[in-house]
Amino acid sequence: MEMLRIACFLTLLLAATIYAMRKGGGPERAMAIILIAMLAADRLLHLTVPPRFEALDPGHLAIDIAAAAATLLLALAAHRFWPLIAAALQMLPLLAHVSRAVDVSVHPIAYLSMQVAASWLLPPLLVLGTWRHRKRLQFCGSDRSWRDLWQRSNPNMRGQ
C-alpha cells in the first residue's frame, strides 16, 4: 500500500511539473524546479539515511527549511496569488518538526503525516496556477510573471 501511495504521488508530481515547465510562466516553472529539487534531495537523503520518524529528522528538516525559504521568495517575487498558498503549505512541515522537537511523545505516524500531508496539495496547486496563467494569456494576451520589486525599493528609478 505504501508503494502505491508513493507511485500515485510521483505520478501527480511528474504530471504537474511537466505541465508547468511546458505551459507555465516564470513562477510556475520556478515552483516546478523547487518541487523537483525537494524530490531529488529526499531521494538522496534516503540513499544514505533510512527514514525514521521516532525523533526529530534533521535531514528532512533541512530539506523543508530550504523548500520553505525558496517558496517564500517565490511568493514575494511572483506576480501571482497561488505562490502565497504554496508558501503557507511549505511552512506546515516546519511546524511538524517544531512539534516533534517540543513534544518527543508525538507518535511517529503523526510526525510522518504532518511532514508529508501538505505536499499532496502542491502539485494540484501548481496545475491550477499554470491553468490560470494559460487562461490569462488567452484572455489578455500577456501575463506578467514577476513583481517590479526594483522600482518599488529604489525611489531613484521611478518614472524611468
Give short descriptive properties of this protein.
mainly alpha, 7 helices, elongated, 74% helix, single chain
Summed up:
By secondary structure, the chain is an all-alpha fold.
Describe the 3D structure:
Keywords: Membrane, Transmembrane, Transmembrane helix. The protein is mostly helical and 160 residues long. It has one domain. Helices cover 74% and strands 0% of the residues. The longest helix has 23 residues. The radius of gyration is 18 Å and the shape is elongated.
Fraction of residues in H or I helices? over 70%
E-strand count: 0
Element-by-element helix/strand order: HHHHHHH
The whole-number mean of residue pLDDT values reads 89
Radius of gyration: 18 Å
The residue ranges in which pLDDT falls below 50 over 5 or more consecutive positions are none
Strand content range: under 5%
Determine the N-to-C terminus distance: 59 Å
Number of domains: 1
The biggest beta sheet is recorded as:
none
Quick one: overall form? Answer: elongated
Coarse structural class:
mainly alpha
User: Count the helices. How many?
Assistant: 7
Transmembrane segments: 61-89, 109-128
Keywords: Membrane, Transmembrane, Transmembrane helix
